[in-house]
Amino acid sequence: MSKTKGVTAEEIIESQKVHGDDFLILDIFPETIKGKKVDKLRTNKTGTVQYGNVLIKKPDGTKVPLIIKFIQLTTNGNIKKPNFRDYETIKLAFLKDDKVNTESKFGEAIDIICKTFERLVESYVKEGKISTKPKKNTLRVHSSSPAFPVQYTAIERETGEVVELENPLMWFELQQKYYSQEEQDELEHFEGLTYQRDDTKPILVKEFTVAIKDLKKRTEEKRVKVNRIIGEKVILKKTIIPPATDEEGNSMNTCNVQKFITAGSIVSGYVVMGLTISKSAFNLKTVFKNKLYVAANDDDTANSNEDLDPQDVEEMIPDVSKLSLLNKSVEG
Question: Residue 228 — left, alpha, or beta (φ > 0 → left; ψ -120 to 50 → alpha)?
């Protein structure tokens, strides 16, 4: 199983200091390789959506996919029950400046990425590099209106005015698995209901592309192995973090996840950023990747996870590896 390396928030902040806006690379423009033009943007079958990769130039100049590791972010708000959702997409909200893990630089890094992304897209338009209309020597895109996962403003309910958020919100998607039409026909239809703003779309019970793990049910396993180099027994310890389940033992899906990931839960893992360009927006889509480690908040009125040590959690999920050897000790 391959490991997800990812970059840290600190690396992103340092990369921006070293390279300026060039630290963020929207890999969308065609290249000529061995005399042949190679397109970077991909499209769906109907041609209505374009997809592109986003890279980051690390401080040393190395270019890698924009996969970011985060440790102990606090969810801000609950996921709506299925029958109250407007649309199918499910996102978790976080504050840019986390109120529990106050030392986290993740929000600062995401803020830098989003503001740089907006400047890049606007510069591409101004310089004639991209356009929604066919032009010579210009990349045609479905939209040139940048959208990103940070919400900087909100509408004041009482006045209807747009106000700046003192602590912006970050929204990351719990991406659902892809199902063919034939497969969807076999899925459970939740209470026969449809979504609030899309009454043509049934609420189906779907799995996620990310595996949701229950940190509170973690256990430790020991294994004795003979180290041939030193000729002694070595005790290998690994932490087992089981999948999250509901009260009936079902794994997390689109119709029960709201019971587990509640406001004030602590989550750790990775997010990956990529481009999704449709008629509505030139979007920096951000989704969770591989595994999401959750310490659910069992108290609806307060955060119950302040006793979790960020360093301990960091050690539990190095590179999202299949096996984590946390500690090694030698027996004589």
Answer: alpha
Assigned token pair, 308 = 């979790």
User: Can you tell me which residue has the tokens 């089981």?
Assistant: 242
Q: Which residues pair with 275 in a beta bridge?
A: 52, 284
Closest by CA to 148, choosing from 127, 180, 171, 123, is: 171
Continuous H helices in the chain: 9-19, 106-126, 181-184, 257-260, 310-316
Per-residue pLDDT reduced to its tens digit, 120-178: 999 999 999 999 999 999 999 999 999 999 999 998 888 889 999 999 999 999 999 99
The domain limits of the chain are: 9-216+247-309
Name the token pair of 86: 């407007």
pTM of this prediction? Answer: 0.86
The residue count of the chain comes to 332
pLDDT in tens, 199-239: 899 999 999 999 999 999 999 888 888 878 877 888 888 88
* DSSP assigned state of 81: P
Terminal CA-CA length for the chain: 33
Classify residue 156 as exposed, middle or buried by CB count within 10 Å of its CB (0-12, 13-18, 19+).
Answer: exposed
The Cα 6–Cα 270 span in angstroms is: 7
Distance between CA atoms of residues 99 and 279, nearest Å: 36
Q: What pairing do the DSSP bridges indicate for beta strands 162-173 and 91-95?
A: antiparallel
**Distance, CA of 51 to CA of 65 (rounded, Å):** 14
175, 166 Cβ separation under 8 angstroms: no
